[in-house]
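Q: Predict the bound structure with zinc ion.
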Amino acid sequence: MRALLILMCLVLGACSSSPTGRAGREVGVGAQVAVARSDWRTIGTSVLGAPIEAAEFGSGPPRVLIVGGIHGDEREAAPAVEALRRHLVIFPPRARVVLIRDLNPDGTKAGTRGNAHGVDLNRNWPARSFQASLAHGSAALSEPEARVLHEQIEAFDPHLMIVLHSARGGPFVNFDGPAMELAHRFAAAARVSDHRWHVRPEMGYATPGSLGSYIGVDRGIPVLTIEFARGHEAGPAMLALMDGVTATLEGAAGLAK
Ligand SMILES: [Zn+2]
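A: Predicted complex:
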């Protein structure tokens, strides 16, 4: 019942007048309008000049960076990202959370995996495994979208990253770095709304220059790669994402010690 109420709130946006939301929402002073930190704000732009947006929530020692989308043809979770933003407004986490709405707005608009240069933004990282190519970029961080996220990572110094994708074999959770326990936490919580969620330690193919290789393998920061079921509607994804993220944030408390 609680889940149903929350889901209705999030879908309809009817709960946006929660104390946190109201406190920072459009406090107009003359022409000035204050924007809540939990509202979307632009942190950079894509190749074609589209805004890349982020919102912030909560307080607490662990810093968690969530990327709502990186492959433009894997947007099953997109409605769930807005629902997650509302959820984090209503239930502020005991962690500092930065949520990036969509790292690849050009790819999302065009329905392509890569950005407007045709580069896969999940292969453009300065990992030891980086391989220059047309599809991976001429050099690591050659793409503006990857640089926007890289700047966020350097400034925010996250203890944990969660990145949303979709896959034909989904839904499942893949991980890099010391994230096995958190991956199981996410999957267990997500299974409440969809029994298929499980942990898949290996993707089964090479991912040179991926975010997981760079952040998880090379830098030792836990990374969860959340793979929603490709082509499925967003309703079950919404609850799975909120329950999974909530459980993961509770489990992340120890990361900041
Ligand atoms: Zn993907």
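A: The domain at 37-256 is CATH 3.40.630.10 (Aminopeptidase).
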